[in-house]
Amino acid sequence: MILANKEKVNILSIETSCDETALSFVTASGGLKKPTFVVHGDVVASQIKLHQPFGGVVPALAKRAHIEHLPLLFKEIVDGGMRPEELDFITVTVGPGLEPALWTGIEFAKQLAEQYNKPLIGTNHLEGHLYSILVSKEKPDPKKIFPAIALIVSGGHTLLLQMDDLTHFKKIGETVDDAVGEAFDKVARMIDLPYPGGPEIERLAKEGNPMAINFPRPMVGHKNYNFSFSGLKTSVLYYLRDSAKAKKDIVKADIAASFQRAVSDVLIKKTLRAVEEFDAKSIMISGGVSANRTLRAEFAASIEKRFPIKKDRPELLVSEFSTDNALMIAASGYMDYLRGKEYKIEADGNLNL
What we know:
Elements: E1 8-15, E2 20-29, E3 36-46, H1 48-51, H2 59-79, E4 89-95, H3 99-116, E5 120-124, H4 125-131, H5 142-145, E6 148-153, E7 158-163, E8 169-174, H6 180-190, H7 197-205, H8 230-245, H9 252-278, E9 282-286, H10 293-306, E10 315-318, H11 327-339
Parallel strand pairs: 1-4, 4-5, 6-9, 9-10
Antiparallel strand pairs: 1-2, 2-3, 6-7, 7-8
Keywords: Acyltransferase, Cytoplasm, Iron, Metal-binding, Transferase, tRNA processing
EC number: 2.3.1.234
Domain Gcp-like: 41-330
C-alpha cells in the first residue's frame, strides 16, 4: 500500500521476530534527508527467563508468550497517551525470524489495522537493525556519514554492507555458516554458561586472558568479506576435549576471553578493510552482539591505530538500541513508507536484505 507522504506521521510499530515482544509509538518527520523520531511510548517484554532452562529459544513457547504479551503492551501504549485514531499507519516485522513468532505480531497488527481502519506496512527486521542508529540519542547527520560501512551482528545474522546513503546499500559480505551470536551461545553452552551466551561470555572474559589460547580467525585472510564462525566454535570444542583427555586444567575465563578476542579480530579486520576499499566516512554497527562493550572498545582502539590521522579516521556509530526492539521497526517502517517499499504481510523466516 503506497501512501501519500505527510510531513509528520504517527506510527505504531510491532516486533515479534524472536523472543522479545515490543511495541512503540513514535512521530516521524524529516523525510529521507534527515529522518527524525519523537518517541512517545516504547515497551518491551523479554522472554529470557522463559527460555533459559532450554539453553535457547523454543519457538512454541515464544509464540505463546507473544500472544499473551501483545494485548498487554498495546494497552500500556494506549494508557501512555496513544490515541489509535490518530495513527497514520501501523508497521510490523514480517521477517526474518522465527515464523511462529513473526505470525503472532502480524496477526495482531492485522487485527488493529482492521479495527482502526489504518494502513499496515510490513518491514524487514534487518533493515530495522540498520536504521536503529536513526533513533539513537546521538543522531547522526546523514550528510556527514556517507559513504558508510554497516556491520549487523546478531543472534541469527552477520552482515557487512556498503552504503551510499540511507536508501542505497548493498551486501558485500555475510556469514557462510553460524552467525556470530549463534557462536557465542554455542560456546557458552560448552562451558556451562546460561542463555543468552553473549553477555555471559563477555562477563566471564573480564576475568580471563585473551591471549591464553590461540583460537583460529576463520576467513580473516580471504579477499572477500564473508565470515565463518563454525570452525572457531569447533576449535573451542576440540580444545575442551583435548584438555580433558590430557587432564589439563580448563580455565573457562581464558576460553571466554580468547574466543571473544578471536571473534573481535575477524569482525574488526574485515570491516576496516572494507572502510579502506570503499573510502567510508563512518562505520555503523548494530544488532544484539554490538551491545558487547569489549567489542566496541576494541573497534574504537583499532580504528585509532589504523587511522592515526584524525581527519582520515572514520566515525564509529554504534546503535544505542542493539537488542530487538520496536523503535528500530518504526524507523525501518518509516523508511519503507517514504520509499513506497512494500513487503508482503506474511511471515518470511528467511527474508534477507
